[in-house]
Design goal:
Elements: H1 7-10, E1 11-16, H2 22-38, E2 44-53, E3 59-68, E4 74-80, H3 83-110
Parallel strand pairs: 1-2
Antiparallel strand pairs: 2-3, 3-4
Helix pairs in contact: 2-3
């Protein structure tokens, strides 16, 4: 997979109660690089993978990511029993949020609305 240049400076990875091995870091880079290709205006992506031990040897993973972009930041969370599937779900949710934001901005740009004020300002003819 082709990872864009300067991507490492835009991605912040943290592991809580889990060591981010080189293989896991490469997987995270590949999955999150898709988001950067969709939207080049992303300033930074902060991702945290949290591991909790449940009963026996099973683990529960929670991944949270925040995309810093012009306007309000986008935040998504995913949970599950497999770290890789949790990362897939997280990237999917963030991609959906980016698409939704793009659609709203496009709609606002292509279909501007008149502004009605509650004051006695003369309106143009």
């Amino acid at each position: 997979m082709n990872i864009p240049e300067k991507f490492d400076s835009k991605l912040i990875m943290q592991g809580v109660h889990i060591e981010l091995t080189e293989a896991l870091q490469n997987t995270i880079r590949e999955k999150f690089a898709v988001l950067l290709r969709h939207n080049e205006f992303i300033v930074r992506i902060s991702m945290r993978l949290h591991q909790d031990q449940t009963l026996g040897r099973e683990y529960h993973y929670t991944a949270t990511a925040q995309i810093e972009i012009g306007g309000p930041d986008l935040v998504a969370t995913a949970e599950g029993m497999d770290a890789y599937s949790v990362l897939d779900e997280l990237v999917e949710r963030l991609d959906h949020l980016l698409e939704r934001r793009h659609g709203r901005r496009k709609e606002r740009r292509n279909h501007p609305h008149d502004i009605e004020l509650d004051s006695n300002i003369p309106k143009p003819d």
